[in-house]
Amino acid sequence: MKRHVQCPIAKPKKFTSPNLAYVEPLPVESRETAPNERIVALFTGLTVEVCDPVAIEKLSLGGCFGQGTLSRSFPKSVREPGSKNKEEVIRRRVLERREEWRRKYGTAGGSGRVRVLEDEVEAQLASGAIAPWQLKFAVVEKRVDPFPVPEYLSLMFEESLFLVRELKCLEVRTLDGVVIAEKDLIERFSKLNRNFLASYAGYLYMKSKNWIIKSGLKFGGDFILYQKGPQFFHASYIVLIEPYRKGQKLPEMCHYLDSYDFHGFNRIAETTAKDLLVLEVHFPDDLDPADCAAGLDRLKEFKVSEVLPRHHNYAANRISQQASTSGCK
Fold it and tell me: For 12, how many CA atoms within 13 A lie in the half-sphere containing its CB?
């Protein structure tokens, strides 16, 4: 059932931050880390977030897990270790929003200061009259940050379960500090993502091939795949997960791809210099796809096939079909 696709030539990044250039595998001293040594994450009801700065750095640099809540990829504290003591540059509307939060929720603590951009400076920055690095020379107003917003590390559901179940180095808790059992965690994830079982099987499959896996929401897919890491290369694939059972696709649990959707995915992949990869996850015939707990115990019975679609000209195909039909008449 497995058809291995050829690995494309990854496009390297023009610049890699020295702080991100040296990465090591996530350090796991034993197969089952002691509970008091596990990384603690909080389940907010929609996301799983790690708040401890040491744990954030360990997960970010040791396997490229997670994404900064205020960044595109790595948290700013990991990209720029000394950024905590620097004055943040914000727009005036952001300052007004934080002042509103302070009045509504009370003080958030902290004595940090921010540099507020005036409207004229913001207009010059938007027009390109000044570069971002010139902001430190611009005339800005210095204010005490009314409501400091810390940056945390947000984990995908698949990443969270992988760290909990496979590496056994993560402990997920509720906002009240109660540890969530693995079975309960799976139920919560499956309620928020009806295709979670197939997504997790696809995640493990690509993880076994040493891909760095990130969320593909930005590109309309389930995952995007990186070679070595996003700090070194651009993403190679946009991944779509399609579950199958008894040779039939399960449309209620996956994307419904008609010709126009497929054309749109191909257009996104081409304009972003990526390939579209469809992972067909085949469930065991006697397994209920809705039973995630039983499915995770039988992951070895799952089969995954890789499908690499190519661009198809639907307009030309439709014209040729019409021509052949009229010729037959």
Answer: 4
Q: Examine residue 7 and state whether it is found in any structural domain, yes or no.
A: no
- Are residues 170 and 290 located together in one domain of the fold? no
For residue 123, is it within any domain? yes
CA dihedral 203, 205, 208, 213 (to 10 degrees): -30
Does any domain span residue 329? no
Tokens representing 314 are 């639907």
CA distance 34 to 32: 6
Phi, psi of 87 (to 5 degrees): -80, 125
Of 167-176, 188-197, 237-246, 256-265, the least confident: 256-265
3-state secondary structure of 155: strand
Note the helical H segments in the chain.
53-61, 76-79, 92-105, 119-127, 157-161, 182-192, 196-207, 259-271, 292-297, 314-328
pLDDT tens figures, 70-110: 887 888 878 777 666 677 777 788 888 888 888 888 765 55
Would you please indicate which residues are annotated as catalytic (active-site) residues?
226, 234, 274
CATH number (domain holding residue 66): 3.40.1170.20
pTM: 0.80
